[in-house]
Amino acid sequence: MRHRVTLIPGDGIGPEVAEAARAVVDATGVEVEWDVQEAGAASLEREGTPLPERVLDSVRRSRTALKGPITTPVGSGFRSVNVALRQELDLFAAVRPARHFPGLPSRHPGVDLVTIRENTEDLYRGIEFERGAPETDRLRAALLDLAGYRVPDDAGVTVKPISITGTRRVVRYALEYAQRNGRRFVTVGHKANIMKFSDGVFLATALEVAEEYPEVDVREMQVDEMAMWLAWEPETLDVVLLPNLYGDIVSDLSAGLVGGLGVAPGANLGWEYAVFEPVHGSAPDIAGRGVANPVAIILSAAMMLRHLAEDAAAERVEAAVAELLRDGGTLTPDMGGTARTLDVAGAIARLAT
Ligand code: NAI
Ligand code: MG
Fold first, then answer.
1. Contacts of 191-200 spanning 24+ positions with Cβ under 8 A
2. Residues with Cβ within 6 A of ligand 1?
3. pLDDT score of 81
């Protein structure tokens, strides 16, 4: 079956690693019709926006996208393109596996964690009140009236909404993911003891939904305690389910446990659309030199193949990456080697053919 996929190369190292991932997917023999859509720095210059509507339209048509990183322009009035994309397409669940591959230096061989992060609500919703703005003065007056709380007049404020509807769907997704992938248990991270009315909703909803899935072992843990276990004995966690902000932090932490951003893949999923992208950013410090590590986006492409029900091809790609890392002869500089992006892609493509 032929699949249509939107390819968003992104900017910085994005085009380099996206090209590598496309070559690997094509080498598996799975037939993909790529709809390449530029976004990011070049689109900002040419079209006045880093995320033109045509990009979203293309993903709405293909339903599936593979995406390189996109730089968040600083101080130009644009919030993160990546956050905007997740919100526009309602990609409410981010899935970020962190699996240790033999051969990679790590203090914790044997780690095999999956972070599932709520992707649309929480402090990342973008409800912000700038210090000194007139709206902020009105908010301060309202908070004094409603809560008897005097917000300092030199404070900026970010609002943290967490809803039952927003939480329920990501919890269902996480528990079904655990079931489908034979995971041992799901730990819900929160600070419901402190933030009773936001994290409290997250936790209560998670535990309520868990009752519909008696065969999944669901546990809960305060996120600071989770941080301690992740540093101390990460093998004691399996799938972790978190609100947006904690999920962002914990997934980067988990990537660090298994060999760094160069090997950390991710997926952003909603009911209708799925966008696969590495956890790392556009790495401006090494962009354009052909030395970026393509493994993270290649593993993201493997997740995409599985999503497209091309399981055999996905397994070949993952086995090829495992073989490459075990062998250690073809690695990019971030992993201590001297190989170039396209050497790594070529080696993986040959192993996955
Ligand atoms: P970054 O992930 O781009 O870079 C952090 C460090 O890791 C750098 O030293 C970089 O060279 C290295 N690195 C990252 N990916 C690598 C790879 N594949 N191979 C070898 N080395 C790699 O994070 P940073 O510097 O904080 O962000 C740069 C830009 O990327 C920012 O504008 C940020 O907003 C954006 N960004 C975009 C994301 C996305 O598109 N989903 C995610 C994270 C950041
Ligand atoms: Mg992050």
1. 191/222, 191/223, 191/224, 192/222, 193/222, 195/160, 198/122, 198/160, 198/161, 198/162, 198/243, 199/162, 199/243
2. 13, 17, 69-72, 82, 261-262, 277, 280-286, 292-293, 296, 334
3. 86
